[in-house]
Specification:
heterodimer; A: mainly alpha; 10 helices; B: Rossmann fold; 4-stranded antiparallel beta sheet; 13 strands; 29% helix
């Protein structure tokens, strides 16, 4: 347990030098830019989360550059601990990204109202706040086992995929925003009762948990066989 | 086990290169030098001992755990953006026997600035920070890949002294690879000679230096059969030179010049001759 905690801290120390005000500003400005470009406030959440998610995978990139996988072995960290620790680190980073995105989103709504430049339909909100993070999380689970399988440079394409996915989603959302009938249909797809919403949330959470479990088990199996 | 490390019939293959049936032992309290050309397989064997790669066949037995091995590789396995102080902060929690006083002492000895980033260190300094870490966590075995390369002669001598000091209590050992045979000559008790993935000599340095002699003589002084005894035979304007096993001197002409040979010359002759000797 101590080693697991120390490993998560080590992962944080790995990305910490790159996580400075300049980077946060760039991420924030990019998020605002994409949201304004798409004309939807809700995109703050999806874009912010996506950028956080990509940044959260930095230990793989830095690890490859600096041979950190070999370092973990010399530190007596088991491969199982490395995989579990990395998944927990990514989870913590995702949570931090969501909080960061929410803060941006709040500023975005405030600014949009003041300037009257952005608008959202119910459908857009549903897509941006539920659809995009769920799709991204599923992709992230696929990404992680891919990154444990090969080096970062070889698995780079799986990093481009989420960006393409979100870009495609954004276009989809723009269509929705302009099509009130579709937006209304998407909104009505959500259950109205509280129990229905809880069930809907539980189904999504179960789906993500299952994806995470499969991804984690696959990552352990793959990482155990890797040479450095 | 009186040996801290035992390799038995270790083999590992890569496309176009393989290490075949390598066996050797490293007793406690001794320094073993690994010598061989670039690409001979030294780093691969060291990496396998450390657990970075898995052997295709054979066994590696270590009488200590990962935290008790000090490691120095050609490039440090630290994040470039870390400072020297951050290296200690990030690695020390993993070593139960971390000695911050010893680490501070080595930083001072090696003139390493705590605030300096790893990426800003010279190659020699990068070696030194790794050495400082390797010597500060109560390691029982040091595994070093070219630890003296990139260091000036004074710093190399300092490192050799540190390695000798390290094994003084006779419970700790060092395994290191080097191209700089003078460092091996100064520090190593055992030598493992590797040519094209095969160990051609594994034993004490003294026995190796005792086993071979440098020979030189005039052109035409040797018969074809006698020539076959010469390892790394090379002709020049006035004669020839090479080395041979001391035991073969009796079948060579008495007129030949025969003298003690340096490790460097053994290294050159063995590689030139590419002749396998046990």
């Amino acid at each position: 347990m101590n080693k697991l905690r120390a490993f998560i801290r080590l992962d944080f120390s790995t990305v910490k030098p790159y996580l400075n005000i300049k980077t946060l500003l760039i991420l924030g400005v990019f998020t605002i830019f994409v949201s304004v470009l798409n004309g939807t406030v809700s995109m703050f959440l999806g874009t912010g989360f996506m950028l956080g998610m990509i940044f959260g995978a930095n230990p793989f990139a830095i690890g490859e550059k600096c041979s950190l996988d070999a370092l973990y072995i010399t530190l007596g960290i088991s491969k199982r601990t490395v995989v579990l620790g990395r998944y927990l680190f990514v989870l913590l980073f995702d949570i931090a990204s969501i909080l960061f995105a929410f803060v941006l989103s709040a500023f975005g709504v405030f600014g949009a109202k003041a300037l009257g430049i952005l608008q959202d339909s119910g459908g857009t909100s549903v897509a941006a706040t539920i659809l995009i993070p769920v799709v991204l999380l599923l992709m992230q689970m696929f990404q992680l086992s891919r990154l444990f399988k090969t080096s970062y440079s070889k698995a780079k394409f799986v990093f481009v995929l989420p960006i393409l996915m979100v870009t495609a989603s954004m276009s989809f959302i723009r269509i929705l925003a302009n099509n009130t009938a579709t937006a209304a249909r998407l909104s009505s797809a959500l259950p109205e009762s509280f129990a229905g919403k809880v069930l809907f949330g539980a189904v999504i959470a179960a789906m993500l948990a299952l994806a995470a479990l499969c991804s984690y088990r696959r990552s352990i199996a793959i990482y155990k066989k890797r040479d450095f | 086990m009186t040996n801290i490390l035992e390799l038995k019939n270790f083999s590992k293959s890569y496309p176009g290169f393989s290490i075949k049936d390598v066996s050797f032992t490293l007793p406690k309290g001794y320094i073993c030098g690994f010598v061989g050309q670039n690409g001979a397989g030294k780093t691969t064997i060291l990496k396998s001992i450390l657990g970075f790669t898995r052997p295709d066949s054979g066994t590696i037995e270590l009488a200590c755990c990962a935290e008790e091995i000090g490691v120095v590789m050609e490039a440090p396995m630290y994040v470039d953006e870390w400072t020297v102080a951050e290296v200690e902060m990030n690695l020390s929690p993993f070593y139960p026997a971390w000695d911050c006083v010893a680490f501070a002492r080595y930083l001072e000895q090696f003139a390493l600035d705590r605030k300096k980033k790893i990426k800003a260190l010279s190659r020699g300094m990068k070696m030194k920070i790794q050495l400082a870490v390797a010597l500060s966590h109560g390691a029982k075995l040091l595994i070093l890949d070219e630890p003296t390369s990139g260091l000036d002669p004074l710093a190399r001598d300092e490192v050799c002294d540190l390695l000798r000091e390290f094994v003084l209590d006779e419970s700790r050992s060092v395994l290191f690879s080097s191209h700089i045979t003078s460092d091996l000559e100064k520090t190593a008790d055992y030598i493992n000679f590797l040519i094209d993935g095969t160990i051609v000599y594994a034993g004490t340095k003294d026995a190796l230096l005792e086993k071979y002699v440098r020979v030189a003589g005039g052109l035409g002084a040797l018969s074809a059969e006698q020539k076959r005894c010469i390892i790394g035979y090379r002709e020049h304007g006035t004669g020839f030179e090479g080395m041979c096993e001391r035991a073969h001197l009796r079948i060579l002409p008495q007129t030949l010049l025969a003298e003690a040979i340096a490790l460097d010359d053994i290294f050159i002759c063995m590689n030139k001759g590419a002749k396998l000797h046990e």
